Amino acid sequence: SQEVEQSPQSLIIQEGENVTINCSFSKTLYSLHWYWQKHGEGPIFLMMLMKDGDEKSHDRIAAILKEKNQQSSLFITASQCSHSGTYFCGVEAQ
């Protein structure tokens, strides 16, 4: 079975701070997806990464896939109150 772990588990940040969330996985993947969920709402798809070195960005949010390291990182630059919520990754294994 695919093992996926995120770190840190939770964050309290000040507006304007930069944020990094890491997702590690244990198996060869087909794709990795990042999602964002506001309290009381359904998850929103942010981006999909498919190969080593893939990098996507949207507004102040970016993500990179380092498949050789079995890791992906999500970055929020100059965070705003509107960024608050739960961020999580999902992996589609080969």
Automatic annotation (TrEMBL):
Record's keyword terms, sorted: Adaptive immunity, Cell membrane, Disulfide bond, Glycoprotein, Immunity, Membrane, Signal, T cell receptor
Source lineage: Eukaryota, Metazoa, Chordata, Craniata, Vertebrata
Transmembrane segments annotated in the record for this chain: none
Annotated compartments: Cell membrane
The protein's name in its UniProt record: Ig-like domain-containing protein
Pfam families: V-set (PF07686)
GO cellular component terms given for this protein: T cell receptor complex
Residue ranges of domain Ig-like in the record: 2-94
Top-level taxon of origin: Eukaryota
Subunit comment: Alpha-beta TR is a heterodimer composed of an alpha and beta chain; disulfide-linked. The alpha-beta TR is associated with the transmembrane signaling CD3 coreceptor proteins to form the TR-CD3 (TcR or TCR). The assembly of alpha-beta TR heterodimers with CD3 occurs in the endoplasmic reticulum where a single alpha-beta TR heterodimer associates with one CD3D-CD3E heterodimer, one CD3G-CD3E heterodimer and one CD247 homodimer forming a stable octameric structure. CD3D-CD3E and CD3G-CD3E heterodimers preferentially associate with TR alpha and TR beta chains, respectively.
InterPro entries attached to this UniProt entry: Ig-like_dom, Ig-like_dom_sf, Ig-like_fold, Ig_V-set, TCR_alpha_variable
